[in-house]
Amino acid sequence: MESSSDQSHHGKGLVEYVMRKAAPPPFLLKTYMLVEDPATDGVISWNGEGTAFVVWQPAEFASDLLPTLFKHSNFSSFVRQLNTYGFRKVATNRWEFSNDKFRRGDRDKLCEIRRRKSSSSNKPQPDVQVQPAAAKLGQIEEDDQKSSSSTSSSSELATLILDNKRLKQENGFLSSELAVMKKRCKGLVDLAAIYGGHLEREDQRGVDELEETCSEGPKLFGVRLELEVEAGNNK
């Protein structure tokens, strides 16, 4: 019978195992992030159906994108890593890779993709024995320790990078909208200035005509009334 301390240790191990299984492996999350990023569509993107992704420019992908997330620039190593997670090369004329759980818009299924366990057919296989559940769980934890030790922190980092890119895109969109609004406002201000100047010139011309009329004196049928009065006085 297990002691209370053994049961507590076993319970903690089970919780840690479940938490690791709930988060996708960092390699898959980073690859998905690269494929989803519209800024890199010229180098790597989904195929037309979103059922596979294509590395359009392997050389540029290796030199520019791989070092940003995977800390190396070896395209062959990237392909081997894909193979360990069950990806298949589905085209002969381009680098197109597919996995049934790796789909556009279905990021949650990444958690279901697991690294293949290496096995050797040359070694004699031991007799299969029924093991207690605790022993099986301990073996699974040991097998996944290397690949999953930093899954939680890496997943959080990848999520932050995705959020940062999304915020940058939204900021760029808002900046574009602001520039358009500024341009429109400037056009309205310029139009108002032109229209206001036109009205000012019209008002000034009206004032000038009025002053000219007053200085010449009133006219009747084109004849100044002042002259008519003088003519009447001479009679």
From TrEMBL:
Pfam families: HSF_DNA-bind (PF00447). Homotrimer. The lineage of its organism: Eukaryota, Viridiplantae, Streptophyta, Embryophyta, Tracheophyta. One of its GO terms (biological process) is regulation of transcription by RNA polymerase II. Gene3D superfamilies: Winged helix-like DNA-binding domain superfamily/Winged helix DNA-binding domain. The gene is LOC105162551. Its main location: nucleus. This is Heat stress transcription factor B-3-like. GO terms for cellular component: nucleus. It comes from Sesamum indicum (Oriental sesame).
